[in-house]
C-alpha cells in the first residue's frame, strides 16, 4: 500500500474508517469466492456457470427498465425516435436473443476457463489491487472500442452487410433487448472484442484477475444495452464526459444505417469523419463536417 495513503489514513479518521471497511469487504468477497469454487468442485464448471448467470441476469435485468419505460411511456419525452415498439416485436427479439445466448454464446462462456489457464488469468481468492483493476478496465474499454469500430465498419461492406450485419439492423429504432440481437458470426466477432481485450492484456502484461474480467463484461453489457435503449436524457453520460458515445450516438447509426460505428466512444468516428451528419452537426463549435455530408454534395 502507498505510504502517503497510509500516513493520510492514520491522520484522518474518516479515511482510516473507509479503508478498514473497504478491506473487510474485499476479505468477505474473497472468502465468498473461495467457498463458491469449493462448493462447485470444478473450476471449469464454476467459471462457466458464473459467467452464464451473470450474463443472463445483467442482460435481461438491465433491459427490463427500458421495456417498462417503453410500456408506461412515463419518460416518452426523452425518446430519441418517436416510434412505438409492439410487444410482439419485443417478444420475438427476446426469443431470438435467448436462443443466441444458450446455443451460441454458451460455448465460448464454458470455454473461457481453459483459455484463462493458457493466458494466465488469475482466478484465485486473492483479488487484484485497485490500481490494476482500474487501469485494466479503462484499457479494455478503449481496446474493445477500437476493435468494434473497425469490425463494425467492415460489417457494413457489401456482402458482409447483406449476409451478416443486416440482422442487427432489423430495428431502425432500437430498444435495450436488441443490443445482442445479431447474426451468430457477428456475435462471435463483437464478443471477441469484449473477451479478447483482457485475454490479450493478460498474455502480454499479466496481472489480470477474473474478477476484473467479470466487472468489465458487466460494464460492457450496460454500455451496449444503454446504447440501444432509444432514450437520451439531459443527465446522459456524454453530457459530462463528451468522448462517451451512448444512445445519442448509436441510435443515429440504426436510424441512418451508416456512420457512428464505434461502441463506447466517439473519437474514431470523429477523427475518421464517419459520424452521421446529425452527429457531426452537433460539433459546429469544432467546424467538423462528416465525410457522409461531403459525399452527399
Ligand atoms: Zn451497423
Ligand atoms: Zn446496434
From TrEMBL:
All residue ranges annotated as the Fatty acid hydroxylase domain in the record: 138-274
GO biological process assignments: lipid biosynthetic process
Compartments, record wording: Membrane
GO cellular component, one term: membrane
Keywords per UniProt: Membrane, Transmembrane, Transmembrane helix
UniProt-recorded Gene Ontology molecular function terms: iron ion binding; oxidoreductase activity
InterPro entries named among the record's database cross-references: Fatty_acid_hydroxylase, Sterol_Desaturase_Related
Transmembrane segments: 36-61, 132-151, 200-219
Protein name: Fatty acid hydroxylase domain-containing protein
Organism: Magnusiomyces paraingens
Lineage of producing organism: Eukaryota, Fungi, Dikarya, Ascomycota, Saccharomycotina
